[in-house]
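Section 3.1: Structural characterization of target chains.
Under the original work plan, the team committed to producing a structural model for every single-chain target entering the pipeline before any wet-lab resources were allocated. The record below documents one such target. The sequence was received from the expression subgroup and is listed exactly as submitted; it comprises 202 residues.
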Amino acid sequence: MIPLPRRHVLRAAVRGTLLLIAVCVTFAAAGSALRARQDSSNLPSPSAVVQTHVYVSLDPVPREREFEVAVQAEIARGFHVNSHTPSEMYLIPTTLTPNLPAGIQPAGTIYPPGQLEKFPFSPDKPLSVYTGSVTMRLKLSADAHAPLGPTTIRMTLRYQACNNTTCLPPVNLPVSVRLEVAAAGTNARATHPEIFGTTSTK
């Protein structure tokens, strides 16, 4: 057997090493992609992270009376959403935006304060977030010409949900509640004092 020149042996060794590196990189990339797909497949839909319950402070709602609508948001365990006043300008705030029917006038929105918490992706600066159960309240009034009878108030709850490692896309969650508009002076029953208190509907 005729031995190969040294330079050919070196070239063959280099080619073999490069081929082995390429194979390793390919397998590593494929493994990372597979893990990413598996991780994302375990995440819920953004709209499923928050469950809502809606309450009205008066039943019925007389014309020329102020009242409130509360949206109670139940945030899934292990997730948080930014508060209405997030710690950083680039973070998406949680907002509740009403689309009011004729005769119903806005008078403001009450948001709960956020909780300051640290996360692995922000270890040095706490972020203002909501976790667990939070309640947002719309202050409204029925004017003198509000149509009598049943009416629906539609709202949009906007939020971005995150866990300790991943943020889901922001979502606009539709929320609605039905109420009854009555004539001015009609006796109205105050409902859900545990949410609205005893003075918010006077």
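Residues 92 and 160 are 7 Å apart (CA to CA).
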